[in-house]
Amino acid sequence: MSDLAATVTVIDACGRAGVPVLLLSDPGMGKSSLIRGIAAAEGVPCETVLGSIREPADIAGLPVVTDTGVTLCPPEFARRLAEAEAGYLFLDELTTCPPAVQAVMLAVSLDKTVGDLRLPDGVRIVAGANPPDRAADGWEMSPPLANRFCHVTFAPSVDEWLDGMTVGWGAPPASRAITADKTRVEAVKALVTGFIRHKPEHLHAFPRTADGTGGPWPSRRSWAMLAAALANVRDDDAAARQALTFGLIGEGVGVEFLTWCDHADLPDPAAVLADPSIVDWTGRPDRVWAVLSAVVGWAASAATVDSWRKAWGPLLATADAGAPDVAAAAARPLAACRPAAAKVPAAVRDKFKPVLDAAGLTGQAVA
Questions:
Q1: How far apart are the C-alpha atoms of 180 and 184, rounded to whole Å?
Q2: pLDDT by position in tens, the chain (length 367)
Q3: pTM here?
């Protein structure tokens, strides 16, 4: 399996989820050529910004006095991308940017904000960097900036380089990313929340060494980014799943998470709503929680009275199976997302009265 193909897949999956990617390699590996090639293959523009030769105002925007006050006028590269409504913004030589420029790139990388201009959703953010010790006047990435990227080591093989020399660099491998539907999005969220329920100490683990703060590490932000991006990668694409996971939460925790996912084997949340008996509710609490989390997420995204009422079925089954604490934990978010016209089932009122009291639903109509 081509590593370059996995890299292209990760870039695509992250782009669909609005997650910025950082390509890390020695100088001369062809990072900018890859991004230009991907953009050309998709028929969208690619704007390259060299932070090492920019001042903070060149990226954040220059202040301009208008009749209504002072605005930050966005630079031309941002205007061109906004007009195109799609494309790639390639932030090159990120580790040669001084701290003041890195600080400006915080908003650009994650919020897609340049000056007072919000870039369209169709614009994808990719950065390129050399290790600080191999960059000209290199700077370590600040922890807040590092935690905003999916870090991908970029090292094309000899065969991939030979292919590029032969056919040109404008034809990168095809992406294997998929467009996640609602069910898959909720299922992947459940994998993440189920793992954190199992290993809460991994929710936020700031690195203990200075070197570690410039790489990927688990935080509330990076877990949310992983859930969003991983939904766009096929379950059988091991190379892309691993690169994406390691790139957002680090290798150590990433191995634990992927191992947990392999053993979770979660069912389709829509199938569980239709027939709660397909799940063994007396099984591992972390797996039961993950199943319930997917069910609640699916019902919340559906936002219908029918889906909300049906979602209580698996929770009641869990409570009856001897895990009322797990069921109550899932009942809190489900109660909070009640559609306006939904009536609380009588069995739910009797079983989860404390939760309904806290959500202000005790006095609601019962069916």
A1: 6
A2: 358 899 999 999 999 999 999 999 888 888 998 999 999 999 999 999 988 788 888 887 787 877 777 788 888 999 999 999 999 999 988 888 888 888 888 878 888 988 888 999 999 999 998 876 665 566 778 888 889 999 999 888 888 888 877 776 667 889 999 999 988 999 999 999 999 988 999 999 998 887 788 899 999 999 999 999 999 999 999 999 999 999 999 999 999 999 999 988 889 888 999 999 999 999 988 899 999 999 999 999 888 999 999 999 999 999 999 988 888 889 889 988 889 888 888 888 888 887 777 656 655 545 5
A3: 0.87
